[in-house]
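Lab notebook: predicted structure, single chain.

Context: the supervisor wants predicted structures on file for every construct in the current expression panel, including those that have not yet been purified. This is the next one on the list. No modifications to the sequence; it matches the entry in the shared construct table.
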Amino acid sequence: MHIVMIVMQTFLIFMFLMASFRKLTGDKTAIEEFKTLRLPQWFRVFTGVYELVTAAALIIGYWDTGWIALGSLLIAIFAIVGTLAMVRVKEPFKNMIMIIVIAVFAIILFLNNVSELSNFPGFN
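Prediction complete. Output recorded below exactly as produced.
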């Protein structure tokens, strides 16, 4: 089971690093995506930074598992809000599948590591 959690963690890291890079470099696809979602472009930059922070938290989680719980919680929140944004503009379900998979992976990672939050720096 531990290996499955590491694979999910690594998957989320790569997904969020790639997505962050696209948003922060002003990729045309990312710009169009935010126009489709009727969100301002400054929110694209905010989202890119948020994704970068969550990926960093999961990377630190390789050494300190409390960070996995925090990073996966942030990703779950992100995925739920992203799904709601897609529902708001009536995106087809097939466009939401990846963000739903990300949410499921993040929730599983969070539930698997929630007890480690008590060891998170500043919580002791």
